[in-house]
Amino acid sequence: MSTQPAIRTDKLTKHYGNFEALVDLDLEVEQGEVFGYLGPNGAGKSTTIRTLLDLIRPTTGSASLMGLDSHRDSIEIRRNTGYLPGDLALYDKLTGKELLRYFANLRGGVDWKYVDQLSERFSSDLSRKIGDYSTGNRQKVGLIQAFMSKPRLLILDEPSTGLDPLVQQEFHSLVNEVSKDGSTVFLSSHTLSEVGRVADRVGIIRHGRMVVVETIDSLKAKAIRRIDIHFATEIPAGAFDGIDKIRSVDIDGVRAHVSFEGSVEPILRRAMEFDVLNLATAEADLEEIFLTYYHDETDGHDTRVEASA
Amino acid sequence: MLANVYTKALRDRWLGWMLAIVGLTAIAYFGMFVYSDLDDFVEGMRDSLPEAMRNILGLTETTTPATFLLSAVFTSYGPFIVMGLAISMGSAAVAGEERDGTFDILQSNPVERTTTVLSKAGAILTLVTAGSLVSGGGMWIASRAVGADLTGVDLFAASLHLASAGVVYGMIALAVGAWTGNAALTSGGAAGFLILSFFGAGILPIIDSIAWLARIFPWFYMVDGTPINKGIVWPSLLVLGVIALAMVGIAVAGVNRRDLRVGIASSSLRDRLSSNRILTSVLERMEASGQTVRTIAAKAFNESRPMIITASVIVLYMGVLMGPMYNLIDDVLIDFGDSFPEGLLAIVGTKDLSSVSGWYSAEIFSIVGPAAALVLTISMAAKALGGEQDRGSMDVLLANPVSRSHVVLHNAAAIAGASVGFGLATFVGTWAGAALITSGGLELVNVAAVSVHIAGLAMFFGAFAMLVGAITGRTSIAVGAASGLGIASYVLNAFSAVSENYAWLGSLSPFGWYSGSDPLNNGFSGSGLVTLAVGSALLIGLAVFAFLRADIKN
């Protein structure tokens, strides 16, 4: 079973009446991977996740988790899966501890020492009633219940909602730890910066369709960067002509502003043919590339990355 | 007044009122249709009843079966439906919005709390009045359709009195909600007061020495002086108007003097009572605080414990109370029973009001007991599958490795437990009350029988609400459909008892399965119990089937 992908969907489709929430979604997440699932609000992230957990059923297509069918083997899947819903709702009248005991009992095999550890790491006060918690504190209890059984697969829908930066940091290191131990983490978000910190790969979904699946590194490599070069003397207008992957060049006497993707080397090589006084580069802007996937004014116009990929 | 707050309240509620209007018109139509067979006995009743009794019942020279039925609608079904809706609007207005956490955002707009409350009060006034008057109009149309003669009936006056009293109960709920911010306390308290009013205004006037006490209930001013026969009673309307205005004033004062709440206020009710140690410990026991809930059934049962205990205490208390009450007025009842035609008594769920079993049937086992039982199990069942989805917690529950059928069956077990508990309380209360009666009593086995029957009825409606919850995933639809079925089957059974021609209707009604065999006189009914049990099992099975196929809502 260990050779099976942690998550695999095959043309997963979900319609609500005429509304297409998911369309022919193909997705594969390897075991041990941290996978970031990105998309704007309403793109279909939660619909995907809830289908994986058999909370809703696909209109067509199928999904398997750890080699098991998402519908037929749902209970076995859930035995090995921890889940944090996107819009977390718990039982207001139970205390945090009662709630965790309740779920631990339904689940079986929860080591209470680990629960104590988790609640300490998140500095979560479990003695109060859920109804009295703030959003962030409720979210912490949600995280604890997802992690407490040391599941092989964690499905976390917008896990950072309401968490303060310290707890977010603790959460990120927990994700790294469980992933080192071989667990798979599937987390959805609408901000790339969060996912970029923990995920190995990301998938971006828009209007229920998977737009792209990439590793963070290759996304970064493909991101548009800028280099500003200051020369001692004026350079010719066509100085940077003929170099691959240059998006735009703007030459203004002794200054050149070059936007490019990929390696900076050919640009530097060409620049060194002149008398370079100074240069400055900007860090790859992930958010910018991410936004290009979100914008969808023209479906045919394809994002820069796809054009160059 | 804020036009949009006012219109939103109207928009949120108009459907409920439409259903009420259609329901009341239907009851009137169906009732008059069945009653048209009964000309002789109304005449007989008019000839044989003592004058005092005729006045209470509003029987005049011109009373016909149709007009008699309409009076009944205006003194029982109508008020309960209209006031129930009014109370639910009143408690939703402030306390409900605080429970939902929406009052904060509403009041973050630059509007006075006073203005908000007044706008909502205006919406209550509008809908209660319009709902009552249109229902009256619906009944008029129904009587035309049946061809009934309405001489001596003032539907407008009756509707206006109904509307005024309904507004009062709505404003009481508004005021309590405005002061406490606790929606559960508000609707529970106001509904309790409504039931108390029904009995207070109905029973107290019979007992001469304390008859004046009936005047503390707004209900009294709705029926006093029989406006349905004698036209508008202005002093009564004035009293109701003054109370309603006072309540609005109290509501405005209440909402302006305190901090607004966000989210449920169950713990803050306890905060307020925490200075009282006895109360604190009672409440904690009721809420099963500090106990670890281990299974879905245990959790469902524990969470409903306050309600289970409340419903059980009500039926226990009523059971015990009706014993001494019978001693107090049994001579009146004997007169009443002697002169009252049997067919008419059947509507209030008894054959002979002067006998102990007849008295208990009418006072507990026809309406109050079943209503308490149904409220209990229907709300438990609606919470079970619909509530968890409304709240969004079904997602996280089903993320655990439990099957959906497990969830349904555990909740069904909790509802069965609650039904048994309620049945037990019924048994103990009725047995104790009957033991206090000096002239006559009840057979123990019959008390046991009626208690088992009522538990079966409770389970059946719980199972039905569970099925609707499984299909729709919505509490409100489950509650609405199950209580609708409850009222419909009650009415069906009540009418079937009136006329031999319609007796077969009773066998279609769950209320008929429950009480058709008169278990308080005849003991256990095998067929009734089996039908209820098999029906419940079937409904639970269907609920499992539906829930296995449903998309969970969030």
Chain-wise SSE layout:
The complex is a heterodimer of chains A (309) and B (554).
Chain A lengths: L6 E10 L2 E11 L4 E5 L6 H8 L7 E6 L2 E2 L4 H6 L1 E4 L11 H12 L4 H10 L13 H13 L5 E5 L7 H16 L3 E6 L2 H7 L2 E6 L2 E7 H7 L2 E7 L14 E7 L2 E6 L4 H7 L4 E6 L4 H9 L9 H5 L1
Parallel strand pairs in A: 3-8, 3-9, 6-7, 7-8
Antiparallel strand pairs in A: 1-2, 1-4, 4-5, 9-10, 11-13, 11-14, 12-13
Helix pairs in contact in A: 3-5
Chain B lengths: L2 H33 L3 H10 L2 H7 L7 H11 L1 H23 L3 H5 L5 H34 L8 H26 L2 H21 L14 H6 L3 H4 L3 H24 L8 H8 L3 H11 L8 H8 L1 H35 L2 H4 L10 H10 L2 H24 L2 H5 L5 H32 L8 H29 L2 H24 L4 H4 L3 H6 L3 H4 L3 H24 L5
Helix pairs in contact in B: 1-4, 1-5, 1-7, 5-7, 5-8, 5-9, 7-8, 7-12, 8-9, 8-12, 15-21, 16-18, 16-19, 16-21, 19-21, 19-22, 19-23, 21-22, 21-27, 22-23, 22-27
Structure characterization notes:
The complex is a heterodimer of chains A (309) and B (554). Chain A has 309 residues and is an alpha/beta fold. Helices cover 32% and strands 28% of the residues of chain A. Chain A has helices at residues 45-52, 74-79, 96-107, 112-121, 135-147, 165-180, 192-198, 216-222, 265-271, 286-294, 304-308, and strands at 7-16, 19-29, 34-38, 60-65, 68-69, 81-84, 153-157, 184-189, 201-206, 209-215, 225-231, 246-252, 255-260, 276-281. In chain A, the strands form 3 sheets. A 6-stranded mixed sheet of chain A has the order 6-7-8-3-9-10, with helices on both faces. Chain B is 78% helix and 0% strand. Chain B contains 27 helices and no strands. Chain B starts with a helix and ends in a 5-residue tail after the last helix.
Keywords, separated by commas or semicolons:
heterodimer; A: alpha/beta; disordered C terminus; B: mainly alpha
